[in-house]
Amino acid sequence: MSQRNHDTALRHRLGRTLRTPIGVTALTACLVVALVAVFGPTLLGAQAARVDTAAINEGSSAAHLLGTDQLGRDIAARVVVATRLTLRLTLLATAIGVGGGLLLGVAPAVLGRRAGRLITAVVGVLVAFPGLLFLLFLATIFGVGSTGAVFAVGLAMVPPMARLVQNLTASVAGADYVSAARILGVGRFRLVVRHLLPNIAEPSVLFAAQAAGGILVAFSGLSFLGLGVQPPDYDWGRLLNEQLNRVYVNPVAALAPGAAVVLTGLMFGLVGEVLAQAGGRRAPQARGTSAPRRPEKFVRDTTAGADGGPVVRAHDLRVTFPGGRQAVRGISLDIGAGEAVGLVGESGSGKSLTALALADLVPHPGQVSARTLRFDGHDLRADPRLGTALAMVFQDPMASLNPALRVGRQLAEVAEVHLGHTRAQAAARAVDRLGAVRIPSPERRARQRPHEYSGGMRQRAVIAMGLMGNPKLIIADEPTTALDVAVQKQVLDLLAEVREDSGAALLLISHDLAVVAQVCERVLVMYGGLIVESLPVTELLRGAAHPYTRALIGAVPTMTTAPGTELVTIPGRPPEPGEDSGGCSFAPRCERARERCHTAAPALAGFGAGREVACWYPVGGAAGGDPVGTAPRTTEATS
User: Fold this and answer.
1) Which residues on adjacent β-strands are paired with residue 318?
2) Position 125 in a domain
3) Per-residue exposure over 42-79, b if at least 16 CB sit within 10 Å of its own CB, e if not
4) Which of 461, 444, 452, 446 is nearest to 408 (CA)?
5) Alpha helix segments (H runs only) across 469-604
6) Which pLDDT value is given to residue 621?
7) Segments forming the whole domain that contains residue 610
8) Which value, in Å, is the radius of gyration of the alpha carbons in the chain?
9) pLDDT tens digits, one per residue of 335-381
10) 42: Cβ contacts below 8 Å, ≥ 6 apart
C-alpha cells in the first residue's frame, strides 16, 4: 500500500466525520476562532489600544458593545485581540505537554528494564502530587511572565499524559506483532513509530485535545493571578482580572473573557472527538476487485542446518520463572530439514513455551537456559536474532497482526527491514505472498486492515508474513484454534503445501491429535514440562506406549467410534509448573503406576526403531520391565 492510498483513506474518513453533527459544530467553531485570531488584531488592534479618558468605565452601548475599562479602551475589541495570544500560548504549552508525555510514556517500552522502572516510578510520583500545587510550584520556579507560564503549564501536563501513554503502550507492547517486530530486528525508533504510536493514537489524540482545553483554563488562571501574561500584553485571563471588580456594575464586561475561555475549551474537546473518530480503524471499503495473481512457487531449499546437522537442535532446554518454577524441565529435541514434527499435550504442558523459547519470545520474567540451543547452525544462546529464517504462526492471528496497519504494509515491512527491498518492491512482494497463500484478490486485500479479514484469511496472512523471507522453520502454535472444520482443513492443507514448496521444517503445536496426524511425520508428547514420548505419526493411533499418550488418543472420538462408547477420561489434574513429586509426573493420574513410579522419574529412552518413551511400565513393554536403555533420574535431574 502506498502512502498516497493511506492519505486518501484518511481524508475520506475525516470528510465523513466532518459531515456528522459533531464534525460540523467542531469545524464551525474552529473556523470562527481561527478567523478571530488571524484578523482580530489587524482589524480591531487600534481600537483596543485607543485610550479615551472621556469614556472611562462606561457600560454597554452602541459604541462599545461590552463597555470600556478604566482607561476608556473598548473591552469587546480587547477580548477579540487577546484571542491570538491566548491560543498561541495554549498551543505552545500543549505541544510541550504532549511531546514530553509521549517521550516518557513510550520510554519504558523501548528502554532497558531498570531505566523503564525508574521512569515509571518518577511518573507515578508526579501524578500522585496534586496537580494545582505542582502547577503553582513550577510557575514559581520559572518565574512570572508568559514564557515561564508556558513551561509551567506544559510541564504540568507531562505526568498525566505520560501515565496514559505508559498504560496504553504496556497493553500494546505485549502483543504478538510487537514481539515479532523485535525478533525481526526492527529498530527502537521504527518500533515506536510503526507499531506503538499508531495503536495508541486515538485515545492519545482525544486526551491531548481535551487537555488543551484544561491548559487554556490553567493558563488563564495564572494570568488571572498575575503569574502569566504581563502588561502591556494581555490575554483572556488578564482581562478577567481587570474587570473582576466591576462584575456587579458591568457583569457582561467581566464575564466575556470567561465565556471565551469556556467556549474555546469546548471547541478543543470537539476537535479531539472528531480526530479520534477520523483516525478509527474502520477503513472504507475499497472499490473494485482485481484478478488473483497466480501464486509463485517457492524455491525449494532442502539443505540442513548451516553446520550440516538438524535445523533445530536443543538439549536440556529449560524455561524457569521466579521462585525456581520450571515450566519446561530439560527437554531435548532435533528437527531435521523439511521435517514436520507435532508437539502435543494438555494445556499447561509446556508446548507453547517450548516454541517461544526456540524463538526467544519467552515473556519476562521467564529465563531460558540450555546446554545446546542451535538453529540453522547458529548458537541462539550467544545471539538470539533469527531474521527471516524462522516464521511464527501464532494461535490468535488477530493478535499477531497490527490492527492499525494494513495487512500489505505489515508484510512489506519484513522485506524492507531484512531483504533490503524498496517500498515499492516490498509492497509487490507482499501482494505476491498473499496470492501464494491463496488469498483472493491479493492487491485489494493488501490494502485492507486485519478486521476486514475472516479468521481463516487472517491465519493465511500470518503464514504469508512468515514467507516474505526464506524460512527454514515454521512454528505453528495452535493455528486452527477457533476455526470451523472446513477452514481448519484449508489451513492445514496450506501448511503442508508451503512446507512442500519451500522445504521448510514445521513444528506444529496442538492439543488435537487428529490435526497432528494429518500434517506431521513425527510426534512429541509433552506432559508436565517434559517430553514423555516420541514416535512416528504412523504408530500414534495403535502403537503409542506411554499411558498418557494412550489416554489422549482414547479421549478423542473418531468417525468409527460407536455411538454410546465411553471416551477415556484422565483423572486428577496436570502438575503445576515447578511441582515435582520426585517420581514420574504422570504417576498420580496413571492407572499403571506402581511404587517405583512415585519414587524415581524415568528418562526418555529408546523403545524400538525411531521411538522413545519415558515410562517404567510402557504399554507393550515387558511386564515389570524398563524401556530399552532407560536409567532412573533423580529428583535433581528433573527439577
Assistant:
1) 329, 369
2) yes
3) eebeebbeeeeeebeebeeeeebebbbbeebbbbbbbb
4) 446
5) 485-502, 513-519, 540-543, 547-554, 595-599
6) 62
7) 533-639
8) 33
9) 998 899 999 988 888 888 998 888 888 877 788 899 998 888 778 87
10) none
Mean pLDDT of 602-629: 74
Strands (E), 241-388: 312-321, 325-335, 340-344, 367-369, 372-375, 378-379
Structural domain contains residue 308: no
Per the listing, cell 475599562 goes with 69
Last residue within a domain, chosen from 255, 278, 301: 278
Nearest to 164 by CA among 134, 135, 195, 200: 200
Q: Binning pLDDT at 50, 70 and 90, where does residue 388 land?
A: low
DSSP notation for 53-86: GGGTT--S-SS-TT-B-TT--BHHHHHHHHHHHH
- Which grid cell sits at 283? 477503513
Please check whether residue 71 is in contact with residue 58, taking contact to mean a CB–CB distance below 8 angstroms: no
Inform me whether the pLDDT recorded for 393 exceeds 50: yes
Predicted confidence band of residue 70 (pLDDT cuts 50, 70, 90): confident
Asked whether residue 499 is domain-assigned, the answer is: no
User: What is the full DSSP assignment across 171-187?
Assistant: HHHTSHHHHHHHHTT--
CA distances from 168 to 106, 200, 276, 458, 543 (A): 9, 6, 15, 24, 51
Q: For the chain, first and last CA: distance in Å?
A: 51
Alpha-carbon gap, residue 430 to 120, rounded angstroms: 38
Which domain CATH number covers 196? Answer: 1.10.3720.10
Q: Is residue 393 left, alpha or beta, with left meaning phi > 0 and alpha meaning psi from -120 to 50? A: beta
Average pLDDT, stretch 236-260?
A: 83
Q: How confident is the model at residue 180, as a pLDDT?
A: 67
What is the domain count for the chain? 2
Last residue of a domain, one of 227, 252, 278: 278
Question: What does the DSSP 8-state code read for residue 350?
Answer: S
Backbone angles phi and psi of 118, in degrees to 5: -65, -45
Range 237-250 average pLDDT: 82
Do you know the residue count of the chain? 639
CA distance 391 to 325: 29
- The reply to whether the predicted model has a pTM over 0.85 is no
The residue assigned the cell 519484513 is 414
520 in a domain, yes or no?
Answer: no
CB 251 within 8 A of CB 60: no
Q: Specify whether the CB–CB gap between 586 and 539 falls below 8 A.
A: no
H or E element in which residue 162 lies: helix 146-173
| Average pLDDT score, the chain | 80
Tens digits of residue pLDDT in 452-462 = 888 788 888 88
- Region 6-32: mean pLDDT is 76
Nearest CA to 170 out of 109, 121, 115 is that of 109
